[in-house]
Design a protein that fits this description.
The complex is a heterotrimer.
Chain A (H helix, E strand, L loop, with lengths): L4 E10 L2 E2 L1 H10 L5 E2 L12 E3 L12 H6 L2 H17 L1 H4 L6 E6 L5 H11 L17 H5 L3 H10 L5 E4 L5 H14 L5 E8 L4 H9 L26 E2 L1 E9 H6 L6 E10 L12 H14 L8 E3 L6 H15 L8 E2 L2 H4 L6 H15 L1 E2 L22 E2 L4 E8 L3 E8 L7
Helix pairs in contact in A: 3-7, 8-14, 11-12
Chain B lengths: L3 E10 L2 E2 L1 H10 L4 E3 L12 E3 L20 H17 L11 E6 L5 H13 L9 H4 L4 H10 L6 E3 L5 H14 L4 E8 L4 H9 L25 E2 L1 E9 H6 L7 E10 L11 H12 L8 E3 L6 H15 L5 E3 L12 H15 L1 E2 L14 E2 L5 E2 L4 E8 L3 E8 L8 H10 L1
Parallel strand pairs in B: 4-8, 5-6, 5-7, 11-12, 11-16, 12-14
Antiparallel strand pairs in B: 1-2, 1-9, 1-10, 3-4, 7-9, 10-17, 13-15, 16-17
Chain C lengths: L7 H12 L23 H15 L5 H6 L3 H10 L1
Helix pairs in contact in C: 1-2
The chains are: A alpha/beta, B alpha/beta, C mainly alpha.
Chain lengths: 422, 420, 82
């Protein structure tokens, strides 16, 4: 009776890897893509490392007009969406465009465009009454970032429900969960869903410097992102996009589609505590995890792998370690937990979707990606964080979690689809 | 399936700070549109806005919140306070995990963001505030409302331009259906600062008129753009059974139906999505076109989208056969806040049996709709349709129904549509 | 680097501007040895306050030392010694 939702296509644009195949090789090899910032001169900043993508939009199929009108975050989303559509044979899945929708998550929208344009229209901060004569024609798309969804909808020819979801650093999980709801309730049969963020820009660096959230260890950029390690000092900013084709399970099975995984459960909660701070007990994240497992009708013993938020701030790593223990009990000590942010940094709203991609690839390949740079574990983080080396093991069920400014805590359960494996 | 009802309203609008102040102004046809007051707009091609009058944040909010909040977040927090008070609920009414917050946003705390960009580029990166990390971003209102009121349940944020206000309310309804007891929803917005202003100008949608009485004239042959404004509405949505069980003092109405569609890209030769959105939303509500008493139009204020909207309304309801109104002619378009104000207005119209007018507009005869002009229309309202569109092709439609008017055949009709 | 002298009244002004004042808190009272936490200031409020003090008074405050300066007296001593 109830409609179930499968992932039938994956597209990824991540630091160090454009394309899903390359992305998975990178993760399983434990390679890192963090480096000294090259997009602008970072010398005046406290944190000067980031996970940047060497991204050539033209080489990735975007036309000159698309490049001109799209913020970098939108470009990443469209390239990832096109990979996902090709991967899923979307043309075969879609007979009626009105039954196809789009949800794209982004935490900070067109931040790079806004930052660069402000410098111009304000004449480097001199003019408070900024000069509209110097504004780019598509400035409204930067002001209100609906183009993240609009451009993907145009690329997919979608005419169903289309939305931008923006819940800070859980946007990438929440956007996909929103798409699942739309399919389950019958508003769409196919959803193009995921997230994108391109925040590596002076204003973002400056505000994270101000709250000392990003790492000030600039001497060894390749090893700067150190979740769960005793010598971590904050997160490393990243960028990227992952987009999925979601399809009603029966619809996908009927056409013989390759099914990566089923999205079996989701839960989200707020800590109602602080816009940036976390309580050490992890209670609300634990509630979200329990809700996701309940919706999936799975016991904690079913969880084979936890894809952690693992941002590499002391506060986060302890918060979520507590949340895993609270929600999974003894099982928390048995399940491998890893953070791919150790390799590709923290791309804010996008990372939740990129982590879903890592999770479904773990199911497809029966491999758990490692936590890079985990040399000396924080004694307060005493779970199995899969240090440095990927692990081959049976992976049928993955729990992927996220935590974001605003107090958002989200958890998703991905499960190998019954019967027809990918 | 349970129904989702609105039990509290808080409006902060350019023509009235507070629900009853707004409602009185809307019925009287009093406009809040005037010259931009939040900055010197004399050098820009658009110089009118709708600004919330008489709002002194320090009278309503603790001083600890002021340095870390944008103007529009302060308005949102106060609107939420008033909506909660109106509903007679607070952070303790239900368990914290059973209450959440889902709001719409468009540009985030843009005025706050401009100040920090100015410091970044003018003075240096070390001058950027610690609060910039959240005061600007789109999730700020949901986060701050959740924290202020201790609500820990599933929450969310949608950014779909004007359509987002309805999408947020629909998402709130989904959360109630999943088991939450109460969701604070709606939207409050505003980006009336020089930096936001040039973004709105770049949209090509702003009116350049300097006369508040003729600047925003949807469905009028003189239509030449809209006026942008600030404000919005926060609504308290509850599961009907939970509201009954706690003895809620009043129920304004039910969120009975909803749909969202996206327009095909221009040049594809396919019909725009609005007509379909209205039809699906009616089916979702189990309502027939003939059941609808009034339509609150999106009212873009430019010939092409006005014509498209009038055509979609006429295609569903028949030419001129349902009263259509656009009280936003008194406030300007409030972006993520606008649709929430329209929903609040529809609920108040149901309560009082009167529909506020569309002001200043002389309806162009070639639009096949019957616009409420010249004064409010006395009319028992049982079912109202609210339309909101976001720039770029977003169409959302919400159906609001009087309390206790639910039909039994809702699910049958919905099933028939999906099977079709 | 020489810098302007900073007194408790200066610190209170910067606190007010950076983070407001909590309900029931009197910054004009005996607060020298009351923790910032008890005065209603969380970590982000203190980061904002610290950044403003650094800029206005030209003092460089080390991260670790700053986080250990948990009362107005300790913070004033730290800045005085800078």
């Amino acid at each position: 009776m109830s409609r179930r939702v499968a992932i039938v296509g994956v597209g990824v644009v991540a630091p160090g890897a454009i394309g899903t195949k390359e992305f998975w090789s990178m993760l399983t090899e434990g390679r890192t893509a963090t480096r000294k910032i090259t997009f602008f001169d970072p010398s005046r900043f406290r944190s000067r490392v980031a996970a940047e993508i060497d991204f050539d939009p033209a080489a990735n199929g975007l036309t000159p007009q698309e490049i001109r009108r799209m913020d970098r975050g939108v470009q990443l989303a469209v390239v990832a969406a096109r990979e996902a559509m090709a991967d899923a044979d979307l043309a075969l899945a879609v007979t009626d465009p009105t039954r196809v929708g789009v949800t794209i998550g982004t935490a900070v929208g067109a931040t790079m465009g806004l930052d660069q344009e402000y410098n111009v229209v304000s004449d480097s901060g001199r003019l408070h009454l900024v000069d509209h004569e110097y504004a780019v024609p598509h400035l409204y798309d930067y002001l209100v970032p609906t183009s993240f969804a609009r451009e993907v909808a145009w690329a997919a020819g979608a005419e169903g429900p289309t939305a931008v979801v923006s819940t800070g650093c859980t946007s990438g999980l929440d956007s996909v969960a929103h798409a699942v709801d739309l399919i389950r309730e019958g508003s769409a049969d196919v959803m193009v869903a995921g997230a994108s963020d391109a925040p590596i820009s002076p204003i973002t660096l400056a505000c994270f410097d101000a709250i000392k959230a990003t790492t000030p260890r600039n001497d060894d950029p390749e090893h700067a992102s150190r979740p769960f390690d005793a010598n971590r000092a904050g997160f490393v900013l990243g960028e990227g996009s992952a987009i999925f084709i979601l399809e009603e399970l029966g619809h996908a099975q009927a056409r013989g589609a390759r099914i990566y995984a089923e999205i079996a459960g989701f839960g989200s909660r707020c800590n109602a505590f602080h816009m940036t701070g976390l309580r050490p007990d992890g209670a609300e994240m634990a509630e979200a995890i329990t809700a996701a497992l309940t919706e999936a009708r799975l016991d904690v013993s079913a969880v084979d792998y936890i894809n952690a938020h693992g941002s590499g701030t002391r506060q986060n790593d302890r918060h979520e370690t507590a949340a895993f223990k609270l929600s999974l009990g003894h099982r928390a000590y048995e399940v491998p937990v890893s953070s791919i942010k150790s390799m590709i940094g923290h791309s804010l709203g996008a990372i939740g979707s990129i982590e879903i991609a890592a999770s479904v690839l773990a199911i497809q390949n029966n491999v758990v990606p490692p936590t890079a740079n985990l040399d000396s574990p924080d004694p307060e983080c005493d779970l199995d964080y899969v240090p440095k080396v990927a692990r081959e093991q049976r992976v049928d069920t993955v729990l992927s979690v996220g935590s974001g400014f605003g107090g958002f805590q989200s958890a998703m359960v991905l499960r190998r689809a019954d019967g027809r494996a990918a | 399936m349970t129904s989702s009802v609105i039990t509290g309203i808080g409006v902060v609008a350019p023509n009235g700070l507070g629900t009853e102040e707004y409602w009185g102004a809307a019925l009287a046809g009093t406009s809040g549109i005037g010259p931009v007051g939040r900055f010197d707009a004399s050098g820009y091609p658009a110089r009118l806005s709708g600004e919330v009058p008489g709002f002194a944040a320090e009278e309503h909010l603790p001083s600890r919140l002021l340095p870390q909040t944008d103007h529009m977040t302060r308005l949102a927090l106060v609107a939420a306070d008033w909506a909660l008070r109106d509903a007679g609920v607070d952070g303790e009414t239900f368990p914290a995990l059973d209450m959440g917050v889902v709001t719409a946003a468009s540009a985030g705390g843009f005025e706050f963001g401009q100040r920090e960009l100015e410091r970044l580029w003018g003075q240096g990166n070390e001058y950027v505030s610690a609060y910039q990390s959240f005061a600007w971003f789109y999730a700020v209102n949901t986060g701050q409302i959740s924290i202020r009121n201790g609500m820990k349940g599933p929450s969310g944020v949608l950014v779909n331009d004007q359509a987002g206000g309805l999408d947020a309310i629909a998402q709130a309804r989904r959360q109630l259906r999943r088991g939450s007891k109460l969701i604070i929803t709606g939207g409050v917005d505003g980006s009336i600062c020089p930096w936001g202003w040039i973004g709105h100008i770049a949209s090509g949608q702003l009116s350049t008129s300097e006369d508040p009485a003729t600047a925003y004239l949807p469905f009028d042959s003189r239509a030449a753009g809209h006026v942008t404004g600030e404000g919005g509405a926060i609504l308290i949505m509850e599961d009907a059974a939970a509201a009954r069980a706690r003895g809620a003092s009043h129920v304004y109405g039910e969120i009975a139906g909803y749909a969202a569609t996206f327009d095909p890209r221009a040049g594809r030769g396919r019909e725009p999505g609005l007509r379909r959105a209205i039809e699906i939303a009616l089916a979702d509500a189990g309502a027939a076109a003939g059941d609808v008493d009034v339509v609150f139009a999106d009212a873009a204020g430019l010939p092409e989208p006005d014509r498209a909207e009038a055509a979609a309304i006429a295609a569903v309801f028949g030419p001129g056969s349902v009263p259509v109104t656009a009280p936003k002619t008194m406030t300007g378009r409030l972006h993520a806040g606008g649709a929430a104000v329209d929903v609040a207005t529809a609920l108040l119209a149901i309560r009082d049996g009167i529909v506020p007018p569309t002001v200043n507009v002389r309806p162009a005869p070639d639009y096949p709709i019957e616009l409420v002009t010249g004064g409010p229309l006395r009319l028992p309202v049982r079912v109202a349709v609210v339309i909101a569109r976001g720039l770029g092709g977003f169409n959302s439609v919400l159906v609001v129904r009087a309390p206790g008017e639910a039909t039994d055949n809702a699910n049958e009709i919905k099933g028939a549509i999906h099977a079709a | 680097m020489p810098h302007k002298t900073i007194e408790l009244t200066d610190l209170c002004r910067v606190l007010r501007e950076s983070a407001g004042v909590g309900a029931g808190i009197d910054l004009d009272g005996e607060i020298l040895d009351v923790t910032f936490e008890d005065l209603g200031y969380d970590s982000i409020a203190m980061l904002e306050t610290g950044a403003r003090l650094s800029r206005e008074y030209g003092v460089a405050i080390e991260d670790d030392a700053f986080s250990e300066a948990t009362t107005p007296r300790k913070l004033l001593d730290l800045i005085g010694a800078a």
